[in-house]
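My main concern about presentation is that the manuscript never shows what a single data entry looks like. The format is easy to grasp once an entry is in front of the reader. For illustration, here is how one protein appears when written out as sequence plus structure tokens:
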Amino acid sequence: MTSITFTLVISAIVFAVGTVGVLLRRNPLVQFMSIELMLNAVNLAFISFSGRFGTSEGQVFVLLVLTVAAAEAVVGLAIIVAMFRHRRRIDVDDIHAMQG
């Protein structure tokens, strides 16, 4: 059985990698993947605490976070597709060009 310290360290490392990806990359697809990585790191922490304390609240929160992540992915990909159709390239700095 793994300890809670190990899973929380792994969660922190994955969250840090996601944060670096959001801050340093200009491609929106990479940024969305990094946000998903950060959400999965939080899910790992929720599951770790849920197992440590013997409750199911952490698992319920994971389901809620997964639902929000799915909705975020759908809306984000729709914005990226609209931006690509309009500008023929994808760059975060060009988002202000989407104003109607």
About this structure: The longest helix spans residues 57-87. The helical segments are 4-24, 28-53, 57-87.
